[in-house]
Amino acid sequence: xxxxxxxxxxxxxxxxxxxxxxxxxxxxxxxxxxxxxxxxxxxxxxxxxxxxxxxxxxxxxxxxxxxxxxxxxxxxxxxxxxxxxxxxxxxxxxxxxxxxxxxxxxxxxxxxxxxxxxxxxxxxxxxxxxxxxxxxxxxxxxxxxxxxxxxxxxxxxxxxxxxxxxxxxxxxxxxxxxxxxxxxxxxxxxxxxxxxxxxxxxxxxxxxxxxxxxxxxxxxxxxxxxxxxxxxxxxxxxxxxxxxxxxxxxxxxxxxxxxxxxxxxxxxxxxxxxxxxxxxxxxxxxxxxxxxxxxxxxxxxxxxxxxxxxxxxxxxxxxxxxxxxxxxxxxxxxxxxxxxxxxxxxxxxxxxxxxxxxxxxxxxxxxxxxxxxxxxxxxxxxxxxxxxxxxxxxxxxxxxxxxxxxxxxxxxxxxxxxxxxxxxxxxxxxxxxxxxxxxxxxxxxxxxxxxxxxxxxxxxxxxxxxxxxxxxxxxxxxxxxxxxxxxxxxxxxxxxxxxxxxxxxxxxxxxxxxxxxxxxxxxxxxxxxxxxxxxxxxxxxxxxxxxxxxxxxxxxxxxxxxxxxxxxxxxxxxxxxxxxxxxxxxxxxxxxxxxxxxxxxxxxxxxxxxxxxxxxxxxxxxxxxxxxxxxxxxxxxxxxxxxxxxxxxxxxxxxxxxxxxxxxxxxxxxxxxxxxxxxxxxxxxxxxxxxxxxxxxxx
Length: 699
Fold this sequence. Notes:
This protein is α+β, with helices and mostly antiparallel strands.
């Protein structure tokens, strides 16, 4: 796609000095930053960008609309989740035909009992361009519902309450909170986390008592270390309330007896650099996921009250060099673990010994085994398991060819029951597609895992278009899971690949450490080297390769566009983090202070110089660039809209080609895009129309 005859918006250059301990840089497009989102000249420029993108894609609009209808046509209109049982109620969510938002409901005693509507998000969303509900928590006596709603997309939630006996939603609203809630066992006290309205950091853990005004809410904890994210939760046993603090490299948890009228919190273990841990409770012990002397984490236990003495900690699941423990869940007779082994997400079961004893102190004798799969690339994850006294663990399974499937697995008999597989309306057959899991050599000799999917029967003759995706940051792994929308590419001949680059955690903690801070270039080089390997192996045509990534993955897109533009015909960068140095120098920008251990601290010269060497915005230069489709949301709280806006402006000013560079700004959404079930596919259809058009596929 080349630039149309109409001229693109040209942002004025207004030099602005960005100061730092390392000197002064000049940013000609800094004026596009408007924290209030009200500056007429900024809004006019953003509107011009949207208008330009619409003109450029006008000829493809009928195809885009057809893609949208094709994608949403695969969705079951009246879909519903698998019910789960908690305290005698069966909880589920469902959609009604044609409606954008879920209905949350429960049934008492049986899944055949009359349905009780907890919340209908469709009704609550009326009059709002964006609406999302998170963190629904029912009080222990099942009489009250606390929930958080976001009406902008900026994750500045409002806390509200519903009386489940009368059906009344109270007029009381507590603004600017995290989507983290925990009820005390008095059924009247709720803990929540209040945000700083500017930095959006959750700093104040407060207790609200039903029937009182929020101004009387008591402060349970104040976070003063701005490198930590703070949250609240409740143990599965419902005995303890936790306050948890997590930074990139350390943790601190506090606990209080949920039935204690005083609700006094005790520190489990004060934070120490390079010690991360999480807690759960079972019987008379805390179960700990910890990286203390265990880079890939291990599970330990300690009697309640003895946690200060590390000699009292004992292994439940020992550390292994080849297996990363990512998550766990406790049951009276067994543990379920989410682990990563060989680059794939798996579930293992660890029985307490003897089975049926329900005694955490006897954990050492239990055997451990994996829930098996017969596909090459797949992912499993623990699902909702609110009950302790059960032989069954519920988990989700997906692959690039298998829609997300929910199973109940009996740890005694090792039998699994399929409860639901996400339906795909139409002629979809998993057997028509092929998935592969392979390793591609990086330039330093490291083997990079790659997950692939394509339509069966496609010849590896070097002619296919390829879309390669990556994230690769924060230790977040990109799992090879199913997407019904992606079928619109696969059915038109595309190969889809996930490059599991360093910076994720697919291959353990060392994989993450090798892709952050002063090793971040590995993520970008890995992506490029995977592309070249797939082309050399004839999975794709060299002139039909496309790249996609979002947020921190959008940083990778910006970096590879500068480093290796000739390898890509087109790039889709979703809400991309591209102005690394300026953002990390400004601790007034939401969430910046939490990121120093991820990207580096630009107040330190070595970190500053390294970030400056790859920051996409700072490294735009006169050269040819691929065609680009870039997205952002005006209300994005994670990556501010002005980062991609500035990047696009600078690209237009310096690039030497006529490839189209398009910016789509959603003026009513944030980091996650539209909130509606169907609305979110509008942007996907737009991106696919862009990619397919560049690949020479128009229908």
